[in-house]
Every structure is written in structure tokens, then in C-alpha cells.
Amino acid sequence: MRWRVSQLIRDGAWREDVIKELFAEDDVKQILAIPSSKFHVRDKLVWHHIKSGIYITSSGYKSARELKKNGELRSNQMGECSSRNEDEGELWRNLWGLRIPPRVRNFIWRCTQ
User: What's the pTM value of the predicted model, to 2 decimals?
Assistant: First the structure.
């Protein structure tokens, strides 16, 4: 059975019996330390790297570059960049910056691969 967080809470408190059954002891301690919300709203996915909270590829890319720059992400954890050198990188920046339909940009990119 797949559990939702809302199923692990009853009357505003964690259901310790269920949590202890489902999780390792260290995880149980961490989960029970999280205060439950007083507001009864549905959960939703939020991308905390931008104000709107909606994930967009460019913010994911910027976050990955920042993690790599700070040493929090090793090169072998990232996909290979399509630009092999600076000139080629400039070409791709220009391509992705064109005001043309995304499918046309994608088609051009696919033709070059």
C-alpha cells in the first residue's frame, strides 16, 4: 500500500503506531520531530528555487550549475553538456534564445546530433 502523509496524521497528531511500523527507528525520530500543520490544506508539489513554485527547466539547470559550482554536485552526477567548446556554447545559447516555436528549436537540435 502507498501511504500519503495525510494518512499518517489523525486529529492533528502523528499516528506513531503506523509510523513505527513503516519506518526505521532513526527515521521515526525525525518524522515525529516534524510538527503537523494546523491548517487542513491539500499537499502540493512546490519547486522552492523560484517564487512561483512551478518547476521550469531553466531553473532546474541553474540549480544544478549552482550545486556543481559549490562542490555539492560532482561532474559524474550530471548529464553531459551538448556544448564541447565556447564557440559551440554560444551557438546553442543563440539557438535556445530564438523566438521560434519550441518544436522548431528541438528539430534543429536533433538535426545536429
Answer: 0.39
